[in-house]
Automatic annotation (TrEMBL), chain A:
Keyword Transmembrane helix: yes
Annotated GO CC locations: plasma membrane
Subcellular localization(s) per the UniProt record: Cell membrane
This protein's name: ABC transporter permease
Protein species of origin: Roseicella aquatilis
From TrEMBL, chain B:
Domain ABC transporter: 18-249, 266-510
InterPro entries the record matches: AAA+_ATPase, ABC_carbohydrate_import_ATPase, ABC_transporter-like_ATP-bd, ABC_transporter-like_CS, P-loop_NTPase
PROSITE patterns associated with the record: ABC_TRANSPORTER_1, ABC_TRANSPORTER_2
Molecular function GO labels: ATP binding; ATP hydrolysis activity
Official protein name in the record: ABC transporter ATP-binding protein
High-level lineage: Bacteria, Pseudomonadati, Pseudomonadota, Alphaproteobacteria, Acetobacterales
Cellular component, GO, one term: plasma membrane
Coiled-coil annotated residue ranges, if any: none
Amino acid sequence: MLDGFALLALLVATLRAATPLLLAGFGELVAERAGVLNLGVEGMMLVGAATGFIATAATGNPLLGLLAAALAGAAMALLFGLLTLTLRANQVACGLALTIFGIGLSALIGLPWQGTPITGLATVLWPGLDAASPLVQQFMLLDPVLWLALAAPLLVSAFLYRSRPGLVLRAVGESHDVAHALGYSVLRVRYAAVLFGGAMSGLGGAYLSLVYTPMWTENMVAGRGWIALALVVFSAWKPGWLALGALLFGFVTIAQFHAGALGLDISPHLLTMLPYLATVLVLVLISRDATRLKLNAPAALGKPFTATG
Amino acid sequence: MPQGATPLMHGQVLPPRLALTGIVKRYGAMLANDAVTLSVAPGEIHALLGENGAGKSTLMKIVYGVVAPDAGTIAWEGRPVAIPDPNAARALGIGMVFQHFSLFETLTVAENIALGLGTRQPLAALTAEIRRVAAQYGLAVEPGRHVHHLSVGERQRVEILRCLLQRPRLLILDEPTSVLTPQEAEGLFAMLRRLAEEGCSILYISHKLEEIRALCTAATVLRAGQVVARCDPRIETAESLAEMMIGGGLARTSRPPARWTGPPCLVVDGLTLAADEPFGTTLREVALELRAGEILGIAGVAGNGQKELLAALAGERRAPGARILLQGRPIGVLGPAERRDRGLHFIPEERLGRGAVAEYSLAENALLTRLNPTTAPRGLLDLRAVNALAARLITRFGVRCAGPAAQGRSLSGGNMQKFIVGREIDAGPRVLLAAHPTWGVDIGAALAIRQALLDLAAAGAGVLVVSEDLDELLEIADRIAVLSGGRLSPPVPVSQTSVEAIGLLMGGAEGVAHAVAA
Amino acid sequence: MRLRLEARPEPSRAMLWLSPLLAALLAAAGGGVVFALLGYDPWAALGMLFLAPLSSLDGLTELGLKATPLLLCALGIAIGVRANVWNIGAEGQLTMGAIAGGGVALAFGGAGHWWVLPLMLLAGVAGGAAWGALPALLRTRFNAHEILTTLMLNYVAIQILGWLVHGPWIDPEGFNFPQTRMFEADALLPVLVEGSRLHAGFLLALLAVPLGWLLLARTVTGFRLRTVGQAPAAARYAGFSASGAVWFSLVLSGALAGLAGVSEAAGPVGQLQPSMSPGYGFAAIIVAFLGRLNPVGILFASLLMALLYLGGEQLQVSMQLPLAATGTIQGMLLFFLLATDVFIDQRLVLAEARHA
């Protein structure tokens, strides 16, 4: 049976499983609020995971690994931006291309590093805490990236709804033509949003390879990028709902590992399906009200912008 | 004295607020502005007059910094300036009210104004400022409301307020009355006159001649990108202005002297339909009766249920509760293709993307509403028959294009519309629905389209025309009804009503139905 | 002076077909750079990737073998994209086709009935179609977007296959290896060229090319699909059903992918294994775009992609290059294609500096 400590452990595990979804999800939320649909989250996460792992293994410093992952994710996003923003290519097709490319590239660069051991992100132990206590050990599992991910809803909300750049970003996502007519640089805003999304996806991927697992295996993101995308739809582009959705999915991911502990004899293959089936279910539930989706979706989402004149 | 300069009381000459010299703008092979020279004096209400496509909007976009000119100079209060972007225009003191509003639907009035001002002022302070200026000029607007809740007239007030908060010295308005009822337009004119008295110059773009004669003190007339005349509209007549604008006498449609009207061909009763879009209009208890041989005009300000009414009549949306009879037979449950098969055709408002597909050839576009055993026997396309159909439409309706293989997007707006109108008329409809049939097309094409509708009605079909252009409806319709807030007023014969009476209904005046018959 | 993109008055037909060739060349060049960076001789590697497989009959039959599932999946995906329906689930539909067809083989194979193979193919088609119908239902009934649902269903299908071959369907004499027993001879597709693995599924795939072309270019159904995809408002105006297009294209592309899956199971693989496809369902997305969403173009594009698969395997064997290298080149191929495609509708012009 679950006692208090087990519940705490479950909560910590849920938070850790939710962190990559929070990071990638909030990156994509910002990009989509600016009107750009980047379906390449999975690819950017994978490249971030591989790059972050390699940089950490090579330098021994996980912070450098995280930095490298964010930069790699942003570099992938830059590629996407060049195609969709500058060259105005189809965003859906380019997002798919980014994912296919990211799967191949990450497998290629990560190959020599498979099985390499690394030291993950360490938490600074507060003075006076007993490192041997199980409670403190649980606390130590809460690393800085996780705290960053938990703060993301607040930071992104404050940015979107309380700051002027956030207002401009929402305006660009609402109508690029109007924003352009008022003298705002649509491309600059969108590039910034897409690069932010890429960096966050890279971080989310690196969290998997540096903290969550921690190791590098091919295709290790395993659809989390797509789940993050689905969560953005689920949230109706609202930060609070996105955070809730990510936590829910963190829990579903963890629940499959605990099914055995609860005495359920179900094939691991069927349990592994759970998050994917849950995603479909969530999409179905949330998309049923078409008017609500239309009302909340950034009106210019996915549409290419051509400056007239 | 240079044109547009104003003598001051003590003999000093003030330079024009804005002087354009030799402005050239070229889009591909088309010369949108050909050496345009224009000068606006301080405190002047200056009309920029011209047909659709004469180059008015391009010129104004250049002044507002949205478009860069290929050649020419701009002088602001006597000093040459460059206006690389709208921010620079605003910094000079230029404000612009766009024809298609530049507002963000999901943001509040205050947020919209903040974005337009480019100030770092906190929203609370801005809100107070908005209230103050709104009260000063009698522009009732609530800063906290979301734009999508506002009527078209209110949105225009937001646009104007946004300009006024910058204390503009030149205000540009692009066809501002096209979205207003006649009464609202009077209110706008009063406000503009007051602004001009305070010293603000106004550039007023329009093709409505009476309105320019009533409001403006100077006019520059554009035709095909060139300045063809400068005049004082107060001493001109509507006819003389029209002649300058189109470079010849104003042709009129010829209307059969006596109109024969037959039995009802389309009867609608109890049509209630909820909006299917976030900012749509709900139709309430719409009833109408269209008779064979007549043109019924539906007037109203955009966004009052026109789209919804047409979608319900054409079959794009079903209204289960309503009674819709086509020549006595119920068609309420049928879709657009089935209704078309029974003789109900529809010319939609949007040409490319709805009435026609930009990427399709004209032959494929002809097929869009003409799939039948001739063009597609047994589910297979007969390309020869399809090409022949397109070729016939092109010749019969004088569509200027490269032939049936020409892509939809290669045609001008007027020619595309002639093709679409022709495609539906050629099918021999019993009932034709037409939405804004001449919107944005040149005068020649508009004339041809109106004539085609009149001829179709004369041949015994029932024609229902939805338009925001009251002049057009008064010209071709036999009876007019007004759509306001999703309700349709009872139709009245054109001969028994007036612009004022229709205007009152457009404004949503309840219980004034009797006024229409004034 | 700077370069600026400008819309062409008419799309360039030359560029439409030049673009995939250009993209292939650029991807090859990109591949060469990758090989060089990894410390391999780029010329030798490129030669092995693109030329070596074509130099023998064996290589040519293998090319046809690998092109078969790519061609089938890509045809379905392309028909979908023309209707603006994005089926990213070919991999899962292929897997379900293999499961359904394999189930028939395991149940009825070995007794020498003539109908086993036809029933397997039918079951494969039905399995794939059902896996495509599911997202169609979710889209038309619940408005859930097919990109995400088809993608999620890939993972689900692969887990179902994993569960089957690890559990209920595992070969009892297979030393606990996660795979079914080998199919009997009556449950295998006939081989076309003696001594090769090229099977009758290739002919079915070839047959699908003219049928697909006919559907898109010459039938009312195809015209409706294209209109729904190109201009949804025009389709609504004309009275062409959008949900009909969703159902038709997802079920059809599911069926084609299912056929690909059962052909793999009853062809080169001969049993069910935890993975029935090295990413054919995803590579087929690239094939569809590379072939200009046109069935004839897709035939050639599938051969090129098959070459990439074959060459990648050769590189792995003879130069110990990771298979992921070909995945990278695949990704680059699509990227370059999307970039060069920009010049179908647009052209580069020299722009004078603003406010000259």
